[in-house]
């Protein structure tokens, strides 16, 4: 393996993060405000995604529930991706497109937040979840890349899209992790004050 090839990954990642700095700061700040407002009103945050996006959704929910970098009370966040028994029961008979929407139908309420992690922005189960969230008068925050795809198109005026300006999946995921850390830190700062 070439050291230059490894260094190129670091350069590309750093360059994209600097490019995304201005583009993503405002939507991340708006997402923090929306999430904090929901939590302050006794609502919950639901997170979902597929593949690497599922892992990022679970990481986000875990950091809200268990804590990020500072000690604080647990926050009500649920990863719709985490319960394999529920997912496989709902997907039985080939209905994978509705595995997240059905969970929202059972658990979601007006004022809750759906956090969708969609690096490529087009999976049917994420689109169904967004439609169900809108039906339930929930807020939707979508963490996307590659121009936002169909997920970006499904959003309405009250929703927030945090769209990484890249087509390359690995780079999009890297910026997603940074955005998730910003969201967690921002919520903590609103709860606990700046440190």
Question: What does this 3D model show about the protein?
Answer:
With 195 residues, this protein is α/β, with parallel strands linked by helices. It has a single domain, classed as Glucose-6-phosphate isomerase like protein, domain 1 (Rossmann fold, 3-Layer(aba) Sandwich). The protein has 7 helices and 5 strands, in the order αβαβααβαβαβα. Strands 2-1-3-4-5 form a 5-stranded parallel beta sheet, sandwiched between helices. Strand 1 (45-49), helix 2 (52-66) and strand 2 (77-79) form a beta-alpha-beta unit. Helix 2 packs parallel to helix 7. The longest helix is centred in the first third of the chain and has 38 residues, at 3-40. It is globular. The protein starts with a helix and ends with a helix. The relative contact order is 0.18. The model has no long low-confidence stretch (mean pLDDT 94).
List keywords for this structure.
5-stranded parallel beta sheet; 7 helices; Rossmann fold; 13% strand; 195 residues; alpha/beta; globular; 57% helix
Share in β-strands: 5-15%
pLDDT averaged over residues: 94
- Unreliable runs, pLDDT <50, ≥5 residues? none
Count the DSSP helices.
Answer: 7
Strand order of the largest sheet: 2-1-3-4-5
Q: Mind summarizing the main beta sheet?
A: 5 strands, parallel
CATH superfamily: Glucose-6-phosphate isomerase like protein, domain 1
Distance separating the two termini: 42 Å
| Helical proportion, percent range | 55-70%
């Amino acid at each position: 393996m070439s050291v230059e090839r490894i260094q190129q990954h670091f350069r590309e990642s750093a360059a994209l993060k600097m490019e995304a700095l201005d583009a993503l700061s405002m939507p991340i700040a708006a997402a923090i405000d929306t999430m904090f407002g929901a939590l302050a009103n006794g609502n919950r945050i639901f997170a979902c995604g597929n593949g690497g996006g599922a892992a990022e959704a679970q990481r986000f929910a875990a950091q809200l529930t268990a804590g990020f970098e500072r000690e604080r009370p647990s926050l009500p966040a649920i990863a719709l991706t985490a319960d394999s028994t529920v997912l496989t029961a709902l997907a039985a008979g080939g209905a994978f497109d509705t595995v997240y929407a059905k969970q929202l139908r059972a658990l979601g309420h007006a004022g809750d937040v759906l956090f969708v992690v969609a690096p490529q922005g087009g999976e049917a189960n994420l689109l169904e979840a967004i439609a169900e969230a809108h039906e339930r008068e929930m807020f939707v925050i979508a963490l996307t890349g590659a121009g936002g795809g169909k997920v970006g198109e499904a959003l309405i005026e009250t929703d927030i899209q945090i769209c990484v300006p890249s087509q390359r999946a690995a780079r999009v995921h890297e910026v997603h992790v940074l955005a998730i850390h910003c969201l967690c830190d921002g919520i903590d700062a609103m709860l606990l004050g700046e440190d």
